[in-house]
Amino acid sequence: MIELCSLENISRVLEYFSKRFGISSVVFAPWVFYSGPRGRVFLGPPSTLATEIADSCGVLIARVQKTVKPSTNFFQYFGRYVTRNIITLNRDQTRYFCCGEDIDLDESKIGEVKRGFVMVTFNELLLGCGLLKDGRLENQLPKKYRMKLEHW
Amino acid sequence: MRGPIDIPQAFKQRYGPLVDDEKAFFASLIEPPVNSFRVNTLKASSGEVIDRLESYGIHLRHFLWYEDAFSVDAEVLSSTLERFLGTIYIQESASMLPPLIMRDELRRASTVLDTCAAPGSKATQIAAIMHNRGCLVANDRSYRRIRALKFNLNKAGVINSIITNFEIQAFPHVEFDVVLLDTPCSADGTVRKNPEVLERWSLERIRGYSALQKDLITRAFDLVAEGGTLLYSTCSLAPEENELVVDHLLRHRPATVQPIYLENFVFGLPIDSWEGQTLSSGVSNTRRVWPHHNNTDGFFVAKISK
């Protein structure tokens, strides 16, 4: 069932997006935060139908448990507003990432990026979410999203 | 590889007299389907997507009747980065018609219901036309099919959607500015994509769908707000699933069928009588889509106002 997201969880998500990725809360103003099972946070339309009859709504943007985990959908849509903690892959790495593989990164790729969840890009295209840990980019793509690229 | 398509004699005898060019029509049914897609303008513009696809050496053809729709020669789309990113949606071109035909109504709408939304081709297109604003209820009666719907809406970045799981007859009474009823049908307009529809093609099957469609269109119309629009569509060629269903609505509800126009697209005229029955005059504003006119699947559309 879908419920309106608690103010506490909305604050946690907005603060996390702002501090870690530099996204202003204004970006989300046209929509409403909803919560679903297992800490899922959705961004959906401003309609009472969402909590009255919906099986699901909008786009899953994060999971809130002990920490906030942004989703691949979130980066693919709102990534244009992200200003920091971005990892840019080269062409070969992009193919491996889209297949669901982890990527070992050079120090030069990491630069100022801090350990934790990051937005992954290729040629300014928004690929999704990764977890940067000890010089390695752990793949966070949902299994259904993974695919073997032949044209990129 | 698909084998040769053998069109049953009864199919030929039924639809031959309805078309303007029998030979071209039956020849078009055995053509391979067109690999078409639509740019998901929620995530990217057509210009940037075209530039990238062409940079991979993929040759694109533009549909003259839709600025965001294209076709390609080979089945290459499913392994492109654009599909991964959700910037394209692989979709049969005729199925792009219903949202396109009511584009003006969708732009003005605050609330829209897509009654049989899975897997989400038209729902994602509607959301793009609405610029992710307002509220789009994407409903499907099948819980199994809703999983694909959720995936596609998420992938396309459709934020303004609510997913529901109701039989339309049991849908709560809420009124919408626009309702789309792309109804379950015999799908005998999709022969070139799904030749197996011919194996189960029968009049009994068509009549079964027709009875269901008459129930559904009446219920869908009841969910339209005063001044709102219902778009009825099928991928069937059968009069019983098309003109006769609209005729049934006109006889039971105060509905008006609106004219349909789409630049650079050739529509076929509807029938005005069937098996001795003269249809309501409003049916003349519905339109058929014959495969040989635009190189698409067969389709039927009716734009109905309340």
Description:
The complex is a heterodimer of chains A (152) and B (306). Chain A has 152 residues and is of the alpha+beta class. Chain A has 2 domains: 3-77; 85-145, Roll (Archaeosine Trna-guanine Transglycosylase, Chain: A, domain 4), CATH 2.30.130. Helices cover 26% and strands 31% of the residues of chain A. Chain A is built from 5 helices and 11 strands; from the N terminus they run βαββαβββαβαβαβββ. In chain A, the strands form 2 sheets. Chain A has a 5-stranded antiparallel beta sheet with strand order 1-2-3-5-6. A 5-stranded mixed beta sheet of chain A has the order 7-9-10-11-8. The radius of gyration of chain A is 16 Å and the shape is globular. The model of chain B has no long low-confidence stretch (mean pLDDT 95). In chain B, helix 9 (203-222) runs parallel beside helix 10. In chain B, strands 5, 6, 7, 8, 9, 10, 13 and 14 form an 8-stranded mixed beta sheet that branches. Chain B is α/β, with parallel strands linked by helices. Chain B has helices at 9-15, 22-29, 46-55, 81-85, 97-101, 103-108, 121-129, 143-156, 203-222, 243-252, 291-294, and strands spanning 35-39, 60-62, 69-72, 88-90, 111-114, 135-139, 161-164, 176-182, 224-234, 256-258, 273-274, 277-278, 287-289, 299-305. Chain B has 11 helices and 14 strands. In chain B, a hairpin with a 6-residue loop joins strand 2 and strand 3. The chains are: A alpha+beta (152), B alpha/beta (306). At the A-B interface, helix 2, strand 4, helix 3 and strand 10 of A face helix 4, strand 6, helix 8 and strand 7 of B.
